[in-house]
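About this split. The held-out portion is used to measure sequence recovery: a designer receives only the structure tokens and must propose an amino acid at every position. Recovery is the fraction of positions where the proposal matches the reference. Here is one held-out target exactly as it appears in the evaluation file.
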């Protein structure tokens, strides 16, 4: 069995792969830092991905490395971040990539970040609900948010880890406890529901999905995912059969992927795509771009629940305005009542996890 000192030596060898490229060159290949002409990171935003070596984390890291708004990209995980970091750092795009491995490096990973994206945690297997992930993922999200509260309390947080309906309330409670909670800066990522809804609606109507925009409100699990088909842009009409089909497919899109992957996880590639679109919108908001509206699960007064997903306006301080739901038809009103019932329990479960 490996001794503790061997393990420490091995970890320190691994950690050397995680240093910024200029430091690594100084140690290893004979080219000293003084010989390098790199001027350091260009202006832009500093982004950390927590869970960067995972199924979502890896493609998300690759796509964020391609985002011209990102100047520094920190990749943190409890396994395999050295390899992912080395790999991604060779992409000839502007962002400087640094890797961080294990709890001891969490604070360095987070210090100075403008945006933290969290896809850390276990995914579903067939037969599981997202709530079945609570016992493992709640603790992971708690620890990571404690790090955020300490090291980058002003960062925007994009929370992907499931069950989102509970992990966002957990994050809020951790930040409240630390005295750093700003509801404008905490966003549960429900963009994949919108991406799916756009795709499925376009398929039914014979449109290009890039021209379709479906608001999806409520939360991110089963009946809490409520597509507002009466508010689709461009305006269009559906038969009752189409509404049933689309609502069911959008609500169960995640399960469709979990079953197709047969035990090998849940949506990763479409999620990375959705997360990058959402993170890019947050960064454009931070930059001061006007008119950026996305659906997200946020602190809200749109219903009697403390958190709810709806359209939000993004800006320099994060969520600058939470939009009302707009007119709902009878089908959507019934769906809303079902969604609220399940959401209330999931939110309370998250809150109690921290307050217990
Ligand atoms: N919000 C959404 O729409 C959405 C969509 C898809 C998946 N998800 C959720 O995202 C999560 C990740 O999914 P995945 O497919 O990438 O899973 P995965 O198992 O492939 O990757 C998760 C990564 O998290 C890492 N991790 C575990 N504990 C950690 C910790 N304490 N700190 C940092 N990293 C840690 C793991 O090492 C792993 O690399 C799951 O909870 C899944 O349900 C959410
Ligand atoms: O379905 C899952 O478990 C993952 C994710 O929430 C999804 O919607 O794809």
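Reference sequence for scoring:
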């Amino acid at each position: 069995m490996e001794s503790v000192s061997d393990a420490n030596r091995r970890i320190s060898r691994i950690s050397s792969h995680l240093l910024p490229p200029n430091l690594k060159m100084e140690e290893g290949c004979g080219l000293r830092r003084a010989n390098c002409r790199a001027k350091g990171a260009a202006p832009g935003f500093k982004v950390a991905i927590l869970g960067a070596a995972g199924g979502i984390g890896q493609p998300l890291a690759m796509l964020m490395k391609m985002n011209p708004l990102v100047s520094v990209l920190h990749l943190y995980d409890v396994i395999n971040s050295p390899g992912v970091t080395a790999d991604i750092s060779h992409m000839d795009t502007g962002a400087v990539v640094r890797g961080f491995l294990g709890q001891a490096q969490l604070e360095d990973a987070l210090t100075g970040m403008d945006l933290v994206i969290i896809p850390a945690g276990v995914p579903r297997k067939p037969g599981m609900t997202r709530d079945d992930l609570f016992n493992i993922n709640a603790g992971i999200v708690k620890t990571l948010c404690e790090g955020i509260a300490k090291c980058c309390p002003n960062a925007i947080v994009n929370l992907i880890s499931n069950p989102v309906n509970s992990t966002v309330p957990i994050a809020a409670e951790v930040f409240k406890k630390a005295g750093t909670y700003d509801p404008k800066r905490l966003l549960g990522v429900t963009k994949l529901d919108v991406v799916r809804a756009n795709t499925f609606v376009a398929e039914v109507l014979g449109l290009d999905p890039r021209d379709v925009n479906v608001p999806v409100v409520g939360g991110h699990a089963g009946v809490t995912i409520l597509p507002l088909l009466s508010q689709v842009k461009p305006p269009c009409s559906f038969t009752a059969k189409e509404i049933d089909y689309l609502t069911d497919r959008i609500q169960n899109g995640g399960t469709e992927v979990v079953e197709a992957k047969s035990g090998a996880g849940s949506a990763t590639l479409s999620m990375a795509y959705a997360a990058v679109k959402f993170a890019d919108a947050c960064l454009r908001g931070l930059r001061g771009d006007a008119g950026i509206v996305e659906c997200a699960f946020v602190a809200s007064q749109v219903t009697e629940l403390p958190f709810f997903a709806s359209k939000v306006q993004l800006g320099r301080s994060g969520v600058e305005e939470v939009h009302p739901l707009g007119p709902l038809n009878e089908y959507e009103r019934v769906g809303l009542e079902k969604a609220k019932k399940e959401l209330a329990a999931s939110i309370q479960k998250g809150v109690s996890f921290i307050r217990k």
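Annotator remark: The chain is about 45% helix and 15% strand.
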